[in-house]
Design brief:
The chain is of the alpha+beta class. The protein has helices at 4-9, 11-20, 27-60, 64-99, 138-145, 150-157, 166-186, 200-205, 231-236, 293-311, 357-362, 389-397; strands spanning 120-125, 148-149, 163-164, 190-192, 197-199, 218-219, 224-226, 241-244, 250-259, 278-288, 315-319, 331-339, 344-353, 364-367, 375-376, 378-386, 405-406, 420-421. A hairpin with a 7-residue loop joins strand 14 and strand 15 (375-376).
């Protein structure tokens, strides 16, 4: 959420920033509601002050008729105050709803561009693999090895669902366990195992609601929502808290399944397991001070890259242009792995600095100094990494001419020592 005072004092600057995002937001409505709210509050305060003064006069007056007249007058003032208080609550609700529609503003270092075609490749590590055979995509490798079953996935749950079997299921589980161990044991993150359903206010705090409501799964009876990413529960671990400055930075990592309707991607990536309504992801999350957040962003990207490096898969880092930032990020990088069978770069991590955007929505603050006024923390998030695209990259880059798949060295202890996945595995 953007600071209302900042919008009030810099409306044209905010509008210009939103134009750079190639987005829209109800800034004029916010300014109108803010003005209306402040006028109502001014009138309420004046009436309350008048009531206090007259109440004292009533208490000291000995003229019964005059006292009664003032009592009647104050009764009307009280009714007016009650009516104004109700108007303030209604305006507050409309104002807050409008503020929730405003995207985060881009950091000054973000270059202006309308869509993903204008993103910038920052760096690439690893040479693209070459083969003495034509590498196959995972949607051919998986069924041939009997480790992915598309037909039964559709039978169970419909389109964009699939079943992992045998060594395929174990490979997914191995990737998750190994990535968690890497982030905890080598990079110093604290592992969290959160609930997979959350309350509405958690999604509002993480900036998923109201923007992405149509893409979320919900239990209407209890108003609980299935997490679209572990970013949501991790953001809200410290909702409505004031953190000790000595605790910062806080680094968390969590595994969750993720549930998204994928309405916005209708017609895209319909083959294979690249894009589904349910997928696994390991998520990194950081709470830090504003002074350190952009250094934390660079280290977050490096932590995601470490997974790619350890797997020995070529990857690249892409900086998002303004039009591809998303709703909550002030600056964002994608980490993409090469998939030799699909012959494309697959996004396996998006690393974002949201600055105070989520912290304002979730009311997460810290005290810069003892007894000082609380300030909002900065929050960052990044996949470390996302499945199933990491699974795709492993399958396609480690395939052999006979259709078998070599298990990367780092995963073999998690695969019971299995070195090669064959149909007989």
């Amino acid at each position: 959420m953007i600071d209302l005072r900042y919008i009030r004092e810099h409306p044209e600057e905010v509008k210009t920033a939103i134009e750079k995002l190639f987005s829209t937001a109800p800034i004029d409505e916010i300014l109108k509601l803010d003005s209306e709210r402040r006028a109502l509050l001014t009138e309420v305060e004046q009436l309350k002050q008048e009531r206090n003064v007259v109440s004292k006069e009533i208490g000291t007056s000995k003229d019964q008729a005059a006292r009664q007249t003032k009592i009647e007058a104050m009764r009307k003032v009280g009714d007016r105050i009650a009516a104004l208080d109700q108007q303030v609550r209604e305006v507050d609700a409309r104002l807050n709803a409008a503020l929730l529609e405003v995207p985060n503003l881009p950091h000054e270092s973000v270059h202006i561009g309308s869509d993903e075609s204008e993103n910038i490749v920052v760096r690439q590590e690893g040479d693209l693999p070459s083969y003495d055979f034509t590498p196959r995509p995972h949607w051919e490798l998986g069924p041939a090895l009997d480790i992915i079953d598309f037909e039964r996935g559709v039978k169970l749950s419909g389109t964009r669902f699939y079943v992992l079997k045998g060594a395929g299921a174990r490979l997914e589980r191995a990737l998750i366990a190994w990535m968690l161990d890497l982030h905890v044991q080598q990079q110093g993150y604290t592992e969290i195992y959160p609930p997979f359903v959350v309350r509405r206010q958690c999604l509002e705090g993480a900036a998923q609601l109201p923007k992405f409501e149509d893409n979320l799964y919900r239990d209407y009876e209890d108003d609980l929502w299935m997490v679209p990413t572990a970013e949501v529960p991790l953001t809200n671990l410290h909702r409505d808290e004031i953190l000790d400055a000595e605790r910062l930075p806080i680094h968390y990592v969590a595994y969750t399944p993720c549930f998204r309707r994928e309405k916005m991607s209708a017609g895209r990536d319909t083959r294979g397991i690249k894009r589904g309504h349910q997928f696994d992801k390991v998520e990194m999350y950081k709470f830090c001070t504003p002074e350190t957040s952009y250094d934390e962003l660079e280290s977050l990207v490096d932590n995601a890259e470490d997974v790619c490096r350890a797997l020995g898969i070529p990857h690249r880092v892409v900086q998002m242009c303004s039009g591809d930032l998303g709703f909550a990020a002030a600056k964002k990088y994608d980490v993409e792995m090469w998939a030799a069978g699909c012959q494309e770069w697959l996004e396996v991590s998006s690393c974002s600095n949201c600055e105070t955007f989520q912290a304002r929505r979730a009311n997460i603050r810290y005290r810069p100094e003892p007894r000082s006024k609380p300030a909002y923390v900065h929050t960052l998030n990044g996949s470390g990494l996302g499945l199933p695209r990491t699974l795709i990259a492993v399958m396609e880059n480690y395939q052999q001419a006979d259709g078998s798949i070599v298990v990367p060295n780092v995963l073999r202890p998690y695969m019971g020592g299995l070195e090669v996945i064959t149909k007989e595995s």
